[in-house]
Amino acid sequence: MPLLRQLLHHKIAWVGLTLISLLVFTALFAPVIAPHDPLQVDLMQKLQPASFAYPLGTDHLGRCILSRLVYGSRVSLSVALMVVALTTVISLIVGMVAGYIGGKIDTWLMRICDVFLAFPALILSLAIVGILGGGLLNLVLALTASHWAWYARIVRSRVLSVKESDFVKAAIVSGTRPPSLMLRHILPYTLAELAILASLDLSHMILHIAGLSFLGLGIQPPTPEWGAMLNDGRDFFRRVPTLMFYPGLMIFTVSLAFNFVGDALRDVLDPQTERRTLTKPLTSKLQNG
């Protein structure tokens, strides 16, 4: 696992991986960690302060805040991963076909990308969710539709540069078929950039999910979700500010963790960084005579 070993040499990556591991652990073992049912309503216990029974207090419906935060990690993480996975698959297919085949196919596919790129991602997501309605499936479709074109552009540009490499030309001369050529020779050189983009974009997705849910267009009540929890706490902010503080802190922490890992991946996988590292000893020797 050379990649993992290189990541572990980054202090920032350590912090990010630790926080993400805690998030995944929390999401997987939510029924064990959560002290209460996140959907259980008890109006007699509404807006209670932190106590032994309710470690972070209760919301306006008497639901345990800690339990809803714990189960909300499942929703945010699963939706973000689904969106990034779908976006990656679609962009790989479109970008590789456009970059390798070229011609009219490339032109038409890129014009379609231009249509999606003409709108800000958040505005396009709002429009799609507004038309289709809220809910998990529509949220995933909206976020995928608003982000795949960025990925496809990057894949296409990478394919165009790799396609002109000597080893690819040698494979073509040796009779390698196009499907095998794309999968064995071109695809590995695009995955590194996609891994960096996806890791950085996970934090962006979580913010989008929370933002749409905050506006009432994402995950629908009573499903526990951090953005929806922020929206629920708006009317009680002056009286009980922790109703918005805790979900906001979770969104901030998780987004920061994915950004840390993405920055570390960029340092490890970025070819330019690797090239600078390889040429630094030679430059030092030349300067020293």
Walk me through what this model shows.
The protein has 289 residues and is an all-alpha fold. Helix content is 75%, strand content 0%. It contains 13 helices and no strands. It has helices at 2-8, 11-28, 30-33, 65-101, 103-117, 121-132, 136-145, 148-163, 166-173, 178-214, 226-232, 242-269, 271-287. α2 crosses α12 and α6 (121-132) runs antiparallel to α7. The protein is elongated, with a radius of gyration of 23 Å.
Radius of gyration: 23 Å
The average pLDDT value, as a whole number, equals 83
Strand content: under 5%
Helix residue percentage: over 70%
Euclidean distance between termini CA atoms: 38 Å
Overall body shape: elongated
The count of DSSP E runs of length 2 or more, i.e. the number of strands, is 0
Structural class determined from secondary elements: mainly alpha
Which stretches are low in confidence, meaning pLDDT under 50 for 5 or more residues running? 271-289
Largest sheet: none
- Quickly count the helices: 13
Order of helices and strands: HHHHHHHHHHHHH
